[in-house]
Every structure is written in C-alpha cells, then in structure tokens.
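User: Run a structure prediction on this.
Assistant: Running it now.
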Amino acid sequence: MAEATFPLAPDGVSDRVPSKSSSALVRMARFTLVRIGTQAVTVAIAVYLSILLANMGGQVDEIRRGVIQEQTAIFAGLNPEVQQMTPEQKKEHIDKLVALAEKKAGLDQPFIVRSFIYLKDGLTLNLGRSDNMHSDSGSSLVRLIILERLPPTLLLFTTAQMLLFFTSLFMGLYLSRNYGNWIDKVNLALAPTSAAPSWFYALFLILFFAGVLGVLPFGGMVGAPPPSTTVGYALSVLKHLILPVSAVAISAIFAAIYGSRTFFLIYSKEDYVEMAQAKGLHPRTIERRYILRPTLPIIVTGFALGIISLWTGSVTLETIFNWPGLGRLLFQAATIVDTPVIIGVTVIYAYLLAITVFILDIAYALLDPRVKVGMGGSR
C-alpha cells in the first residue's frame, strides 16, 4: 500500500503516516478479532449453562452411579465364582468393580471439575459417546450422530428462509410501487396471521394435504423404501419438503412482506430520493440505488434473525413432521436424558448462531457505507 512520505526529521529519519487503505485493514482486523473473542465467550457461557442444565446440577451423575451399581451387582451375581464368595467378599468385589466402572465413566471426580472438562470437550467438538443413542450406521459417537442430523436441518430451514427472504423482498418492492392496491390490502389483512407459530399451521397442512387429500406424505424426509436412483431420491426429498417449508412460509410470509414494504415506503420519501427523481433518473435506478441499498442492512438483519428463530423452533416442527434433523434429535435426547447428545446439539446450535451473528456484523460493513468498523461505533 502507498504511504504518504513527509520531509526528513532532524535526526534524518523520515516520518510516515499510514494510508487510509492500511488503516482500514487494521480496523477490520481489530474488529474481526474483537468479534471472534466476544462470540467465543458467548458460546462458552451458553454451552456451560447447557451442561449444568443437562446434568441437572449433577443429579444425572447420581442416576448414572445408581445404574452402574445395579448393573454391576446383577452381572456379578451371575458369576459362579462370585456366588461362592462370602457376603463380605462379594460386597468387596462388587465395590471394586463399581469403582472401576465409575472411574472409566469419569464419575470419580467432583461434578464441578467434570463440568469444565465437558466444556473443553464440547468447545473442541470432542463430544465422546452417547449414553443411549446410535447413528444410522450403528455408531455411538455423538459427532457421527450429529453429522447425520445436521444436513437435514440445514436443508429444511435454509430452503424455507431463502424462500421467505426473496419472496418478501420482491413482493415488498412490488407493493411499495403499488401502495394501496388490492394485493397490498390483502397482505395487510393477513399480516396478523404470522403471530401463530409454524407448527400450528403444520397440523392443518398435514390434516388436509396428507390426511384428507392424500397427495403429500405425513412426514419423514424420504419415501420408504428410499428410491434407488439419485433423481428419484431427490424428487422424494423435495416432495417431503413441501409441507414443512409451507408451514414455515405461511407462518411468517405476510409479516415479512409487510415489513419490507413498509421500509421501502419510508425510504422512498427521503429527500435524496426526491432529488434523484427531480434529476430524471429512471425509477428502477432510483429503486436500486437509493431505496433498496439503504434498507439492505435492515433486511439482512431480519434474514439472520429469521434463521436463528427457525433453528430455535426446529424441535417442535421437526418432531411434528418426523424430520430427521437436529431439533428432533434434541427432543429425543432430552426425553431419555442423553447428556452427551444434548450438549453436542447445543454446541452445534451455539456455533451456528455465533457464525450467523459474525457474518451479520461483516455484512453491515459491506452493505452500509456509513458503518465504519473498528471505530467504536462512529459513522
């Protein structure tokens, strides 16, 4: 990068000041490091709280100890050699077996110590083995169980959110150009329906299209048995996507369109827009440069928050549609108190949310030229 050079100082050393480009890079690097550090602390706190809740403050470990003692006593009682022992010898032998099993499970340490071990393992994705669950391949590794469920969740909610984003964007622009027409009035009347969650509409969609008409499946991700061809498999997945995506879209589309249309109308009344109109610029040029771009940070924020809300609401929706994603996995793990899986899913959600927020911060700087990163909020 070019630097501005000033006359030599009295000692013969030239004074140099960084150029604007290098200063911008330094600010961006500092901003990135600060945001990464902030998100890392947030993720760590969220994961640790999840560990405390998933273990009920250590009560789950007491349950595990009880299970170990019961199973050890049963298996020891079936051993002919143990049966020949005196009661004192039998008790001593069982106590040794229980101590070994507890040590293997890590239960020989205080819960507060193990909670931080769990935190380190969780943040490094060293998630260990599930207590009761298995992947489709038969593995009990939490990492493999989650990796099988992550793609379906991303497929479902990314598809739904992209549909919502582009539909609300283009319909909002259309209604801002045609303010007050019958389509605008219908959308305004239907906007309050977005107060109901997606699972509410899911029940009616399943009842009508799967139960009454029988044209769409009740749930699942693919037909049974799965199609043998790639094209057939993809078509089956798309067919199973229709109802859950529709439930998400119906629950949010009218409010999203109303919000976009309102922002476009507000920005279309700004002084710089009227000046552009007075200069005779083409309406589409004015719309693209002076209306759409200033509202993009707000729209992108809505998009990111929509993704976050969909992820947090995935438990109910995926359970209703029997969708094999992270939400349903978390519900199953919570039902049987499978602590490693609960912590693993929480870690993945925390990382996904942190990455979303971080990308949102960067998007602000790219979309809105008024935002100066690394300047302490100055514009």
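The beta strands are 4-8, 14-17.
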